[in-house]
Amino acid sequence: MLTDVERKIPNLRWIICGLLFFATTINYIDRNVISFLKQDYILQWPGWSELQYGHVVGYFQIAYALTMVFAGLWIDRVGIRRGLTIAVIWWSLAVMGHAISGTVLAFGASRILLGIGEAANFPASIKAVAEWFPRRERALATGIFNCGTNVGSVLAQVIVAWVLETLGSWRWAFIVTGLMGFVWLIFWLIYYRRPQDHPRVSKAELDYIQSEPEEKVPSPGFSAMMKSWSKLLRYKQTWAFAIGKLMTDPIWWVWLFWVPGFLDKRFDVKIQKMALPMFIIYLMAAFGSVLAGWLPAIFLKAGWSLNAARKTAMLVCALCVTIVIEAALTTNLWVAVFCIGMACAAHQGWSANIFTLSSDMFPGKAVGSVVGIAGCAGGLGGYVMANFVGGILNKNADNYLPIFIIAGSTYLLALLIIHIMVPRLEPVELKD
After folding, report:
1. Can you say whether residue 11 is alpha, beta or left, with left for phi > 0 and alpha for psi between -120 and 50 degrees?
2. Higher pLDDT, 274 or 289
3. Would you list the domain boundaries of the chain?
4. For 393-416, what is each residue's pLDDT tens digit?
5. N-to-C CA span, the chain
6. What is the largest CA-CA distance in the chain?
7. In the chain, pLDDT over 70 holds for what percent of residues?
8. What values do phi and psi take at 287, rounded to 5?
């Protein structure tokens, strides 16, 4: 007779997917708490300004980007279960460290530590999906856990508002959100194992998971990765992809870290009343990711070339982002919310398509390295953009128009550069 520990669970892989979803949700809650405390708390402290806030946001982005480059290698070495456990403990302690901060230096140190810890979440989650799902289900599983980015962005506001109302101190917002990671760890350590080692996976499900075997490709070491990067940087396709990420990734961070302050400053939407606007914005973002991901498939089915299908989908997204400029001009809250939501939706659609550019142009063995190069470029761009936004608002705290003009026009410029550098999307023949 099976013990409780050994009792089989039908469709255990979806429980694993649920754990990855909640890890991603907590990941985004922890990084976004600061944006909801910014206007009424952080900027009121001595020595703080929009410029200092921009610096602190930038520290997180550059730490996150640089660590992301090596996070996949580290997860390969220590394993998913142990690696994500260490990462969640690290970033949960880092976010709780904000509670004992107050100065720019202390907050900056906490943000750097948070960025280092959070960088492991996506490499570990993607690897877990590859381990627990056959190829035909991986896109769906990845889409489900990736929804945690939008859910976490909304829940951060709800939790911060509840903490301020109930416990009265901003410091508790960081402590409560940090503790959530430790609660998640209990379930992670109970349920996560490799499928072939898991006592609660049924033979039928294990056979299904392993029904599409893949060739095992050993993970490269650090020196091999650097050698691969030096080769890939010789190709204009690598630079086109990296420039696209360099220019557009930072815009997403602007929405994450400055939209709550914008709504407060421009429309007097305090944190207690911000739930509905943020929900609308990130609900639109979630739908945008799915809908724009379908566009190339629709165009391809109609007989278009891959080049035309992919770039047209990106053009649609780039054009939709331009509406965000109206958000800085309107005096109507809900018009601004709609415009920002449309921009977030378009960004998510753009992101889905620009990521796919890597597999459009490079063989599978090189995609990871190309994405690593582009991700690093995006993080560096985010650092520059954070300091730029902070500098603009430091001179005039209500001057969001130049920020929104840049955000609204960058995607079109990025697509033009990509098209000039790579007029046709064709597989690259890598040379040794």
Report:
1. left
2. 274
3. 11-191, 225-420
4. 999 888 999 999 999 999 999 999
5. 57
6. 71
7. 94
8. -65, -40
| Residue reference for tokens 């939407």 | 269
pLDDT for the residue numbered 4: 47
Using DSSP's 3-state secondary structure scheme, residue 414 falls into: helix
Residue 137: both structure tokens together: 């289900």
Mention every residue, 6+ apart, whose C-beta is less than 8 A from residue 182: 88, 89, 92
Average pLDDT estimate for 13-26: 93
Q: How many residues does the chain have?
A: 432
225-420 has the same fold as 11-191: yes
The answer, as to whether pTM is greater than 0.85, is no
Instruction: List C-alpha distances in Å: 151 to 22, 27, 177, 251.
Output: 9, 10, 14, 19
CB neighbours of residue 408 within 10 Å: 24
SS3 188: helix
| pLDDT, tens digit (0-9, with 9 covering 90-100), for 53-68 | 999 999 998 999 889 8
Domain over 11-191 is classified CATH 3.30.420.10? no
Q: Which two tokens stand for residue 390?
A: 């902070």
Sign of CA dihedral 70, 127, 225, 237: negative
Hunting for tokens 């390969």 — which residue is that? 76
Report whether 117 contacts 87 (CB < 8 A). Answer: yes
Q: What are phi and psi of 186, to 5 degrees?
A: -60, -50
Q: Which long-range contacts (CB under 8 A, 24 or more apart) does 205-210 make?
A: 205/10, 205/11, 205/12, 205/13, 208/134, 209/13, 209/132, 209/133, 209/134, 210/134
The pLDDT of residue 207 is 85
Q: Which two tokens stand for residue 293?
A: 């991901």
CATH says 225-420 is which class?
Answer: mainly alpha
Report the 3 state secondary structure along 1-25. Answer: CCCCCCCCCCCHHHHHHHHHHHHHH
